[in-house]
Amino acid sequence: MRVSRSFKKILSISMALLLSTSVVAATGPSIEAKSNNSSSSNVSSSVSNDEYSLKQAIKYNNVYQLHKNWQIQSSAIDKGNGADISKPGYRADGWFNTTVPNTVMGALIEAGDIEDPFIHDRISRTDESRYNAPWWYRTEFTLPATEQGKKILVNFQGIGYQGDIWVNGTKIADKSEVIGSFRTYELDISDYVTADGKTKNTIAVEVTKSNFGKDFSVYWVDWVPRPTDNNMGLWRDVFITTSDVVTTRNPFVVSKVEPNLTTASLNAYVDVTNYSDSPVSGTVEATIKDPKGAVVTTLSQPVTLSAGAKDQEIAFTADKFNGLKINNPQLWWPIGMGEPSLHTIEFKFTAIDQKIKDSITQRFGIREVTTEMNVSPSTKTNPPLKDMVQFYVNHKPVLIKAGGYSPTDLYLRRDMDTNIAVVEYLKDMGLNAIRDEGIFFDDRLIDLLDENGLMYMGGWTCCSRWQEPAQYNDRELEIVNESLTSQLRELRVHPSMIAWLNGSDNPVSYSNSARGREVEQAFFDIENDLHWDEYGAIISSGSAKIATLTGTTSGMHMDASYDYAPPAMWFEDMDQGGAFGFTSEAGPGPSIPVIETMKKILPEHALWPYNVGGDNYQQWNFHNARGSFRDLSKFNLAMDNHYGESNSLEEYNIKAQVQQYDSQRAVFEALNANKYTKSTGWVQWMLNNAWPGMFWNLFDFYLNPNGSYFGAKKGNEPLHIMYDYASKEVKILNSTNQDYSGLKAKVQVYNIDSKKVYDKEFNNLALTPDGASPAVGGQPKQVGYQTINFDGKIDKADGITVVDKIAESNLQVSPTYFIRLELRDSKDNLVSINSYAQSTKKDLVRYQNHGWNYTPQDQFADLTQLQKLGQVDLQIEGKPKTVNNGQEQTITYTVKNKGNSIAYAVFAKIKKGANGDLVAPVKMEDNYFMLLPGEKRTLSATYNLSDLGNVTPVVEVNSYNNLTSKNKPMPTTTNLAFGKTATASTTQGSNTANRALESSMYTKWQSSTSSTGADPQWFQVDFGKPTKFDRTIIRWDYANYARDMVLEGSDDGVNWVPIYDGKNLNGSSVSDLQFDSVTKRYIKLTMSGKRPAGPQIGPGGTGNGVIGLGATAASTSFNIASFEVYDEPVSLYTIQEKLEKYIAKNDVRSPLTNQLGNSLEQAIHHEEKGHRDQAIKSLNDFLKHMNNEAHRDKLSVQAKEKLTADIEDLLKEWK
């Protein structure tokens, strides 16, 4: 870096995040060093934020943590100069107390100066101008007299974005050089501080915020609203280290493991700096200890450091030191593959005269990460998707099942309890990795990954200055290179760190410019200099685009979906959008939180309905993502068509949970079922949110798991039974390193009436451990400094057994039916239970129109028959039992279905008392499961006692049955309008009227968007001859529905009679219009009431980096994707529905209501039992009651005529 001569004297840039395990009590102005024997973090225990500690991977000899006793204030408020503000005793009147790490807004929120910005649209109303001026951070402290005469260094691990740094009245670093959020700084302050145990010292930093998206800073893309302060502040750790004039820094160990795992060869490195003006000679000693602390080997070598030597690398390599060849090593393994064993290495420098000493200790894992580029099943060439990267750890293939990690707080406030919850959730869902796109939030989280065998992939973010290397000027290139060096030095100490992505959406040299290739080569050089190419994978980007410098792809792609996709797509599409290859980011899009969270984050007035424009629409959208994902249109379009219209928030929420459960389960089932041969990895977009969002998460901001969570958990069961949507096979999968025999599987199919129509059992099944045959073929290519084999192929994956194949066409299934799968071990213990609601009308995905963010559908699966499920009495049997285990409590409860119907999507909630909030985080054994009539399941949930509080936990249960409207299912008869002739009042472009009759949700009729399209508009169908019909279904193109609808029929197309008059008050994408049967040649729909506009929120904006939300324009047309007309056959159920309608309209009155209702119930009962003669007798009783003169005034003429006609038609059909 280029600095002034005076600045060089005091600035020493470490380029590594130099953190320590030492926990320093900083409860007062005095700070004291603590010994470095603190124990490792235990993910099962809760670490209080009052016990804030630095990272565990590195231990210094002496460290003083500067966490507490900071104050902040805007330079626009306190106009003092740095010389004064950085002096002890400065009167910081009106300043805000805080801790570090913290951003300015994070500190102001904690100080109560800013009201909770996470609910409603409050963040949009924060005053951005408040952060245009720099802000001051200052702290006072004392150093003990024992540090007098030593080198005293202050470490800044992250400054957002620039900083002037002052110590005791002297500026020691200028913001022109302290620039870049991801650079680290180690500054020599020995000459500026006093160490006598009494004198106060002051550090003050004046921070300036970044130009969001234009600087090399934290960037949030489209996941969340932009934090108003652009995350300015001291957002990572600040601490002081002391030593003699020689320091040891940047320890690092690389492992090479023999294929038979009997031997590992280690290379160990450490950087040594001499701060004196004279050469220093001495010895560097390296001592390795095993996970129990026993010494494995001690090595040493003499060194001579020239005066002022900076970061001189000392290498201990296995080819020169036999002690680095470890026999029978305890290896670090990813979760599920073995123990994540952690060793330590201590480097100690001792001068010849014994007067100068320093040491540093690193925790490391003995593991080797390698990759190869195998051939995927895709034939797509733009971008080329044929390569899929296969990861190996210690020569064993590993299927990457990752979540796209986001910092858990938009303002970068750290919380160790939340870190622990994230890790526990990862394990509970069966995930084994996270991908961090360019924020590197909390090192202590990565410590937990190390300890739990969870893998980590990091790299720069997309869609900002980081993604524009071809345009970097020389100064920007320096900042980027130094940022890369800092981050790689930090991350390489973590065995969990398996891959670094030099780019996210583009390779660095994607543009094929000279500058882009220069930047990518510079990255390779840095990575080689830091031995990264010996340590982990270097991935050009998360996309399949070609890096022009090397002519290769990354072996990853992001071409699946970011918005909703049905379960079948993840199995069926092995070419463009399914769960094939290595998907670096994708998922089914929206992930609606539990209803308790929705009620917390949305204003009460805007809770329901959503798709009606106005403030309701915008408040919901404000908690979605941004850009192309600013609304729930694709998710809700599918949901309305899958399950029917929702009439309340409660109904909407349960349907959302079920839909996202099914799609999310399918993602991981497809991945696991195709492991190694077709799929090598998946990064779920995303794992979590930094604020309360309704897009891209598996659990919400408040740590409540939802349907997405439980779908992922089910799909990733270690031993799992599943249904393959593509092959229709039932498979059992083994994701563990154990083999199994004597397994028993049961495959059952139930109709909507709970009757079993298929039942098979399979015994003595066996499963091999997870694994794969070696890849064959291919050729090596040089990529940077690494040699990687391309175009190989794995022919066989282990741990997969096909059990059965369900042939729907051979079964007498109802339009909606259930597949129920069970897997038991050799001792008859239930190890996996899995249920699917299926439809005879399938999701048909339009793969030829696959897009980067979404793939449209021609047809949606029809699951509306779920509305026929009866209400169920779900009971908790007995009293739930609780058992305490340290700081955790586990509650065990038994749920029983006492109803006569299948209970679908049964879910439990653990509450803090009867009317309390949800307990979170919570690990629940299962949720959104199916119970047969009379069936019960005993389940458990585990949570922290501290999260429960001093109350008794309460278990609440409910199901889909009890929360959904009992509307009429979609018809299964022929659509009478298909292929007929349609006309309309107006059309827009090629979206002519006949396009609504093609039975495809992709095509549509659209009314004119100009003045001719003003309300009302009409759409009509000519059947060509008189046609009997009694139901019309309109499938709208979501936003462009009609609020008011009138149906009319005509014999000649001129004279019209009314059929139906109704409203769509919930903005549903499906309008189901039911009426008494008529016979007409023509049907006409007259529409009015387009969706209103939605107001702008805050300063507006629609893309990345906005804190508000732009106004949504009013709909300018009506769009009908499918106009369907039906004549439904008469049945006992349709007669019952018609009777209920007449009763509701008071066309049938008491006491006749009871007599007719009872006769009809008896008829249904007899028919279901197969007693047709008795059913006919009950129907004749029904007719007698209607024709009884005593009831003449209890029945309208229309009701009598229609009900009589229907019964006579049914009796005629039965004969």
TrEMBL record:
Which GO MF terms does the UniProt record name?
hydrolase activity, hydrolyzing O-glycosyl compounds
Q: Does the keyword Protein transport apply?
A: no
User: GO terms for biological process?
Assistant: carbohydrate metabolic process
One Pfam family of this protein, by short name? Answer: F5_F8_type_C
Q: Which UniProt keywords apply?
A: Glycosidase, Hydrolase, Signal
Q: Where is the F5/8 type C domain?
A: 958-1085
- Report the PROSITE patterns cross-referenced here: FA58C_3 (PS50022)
Hydrolase: present as a keyword of the record?
Answer: yes
InterPro entries the record matches: Beta-gal/glucu_dom_sf (IPR036156), Beta-mannosidase-like_N2 (IPR054593), EBDG/EBM (IPR043534), FA58C (IPR000421), FIMAH_dom (IPR054470), Galactose-bd-like_sf (IPR008979), GH (IPR017853), Ig-like_fold (IPR013783)
**What start and end residues bound the annotated signal peptide?**
1-25
Q: Which family does it belong to?
A: Belongs to the glycosyl hydrolase 2 family.
Q: What is this protein called?
A: Discoidin domain-containing protein
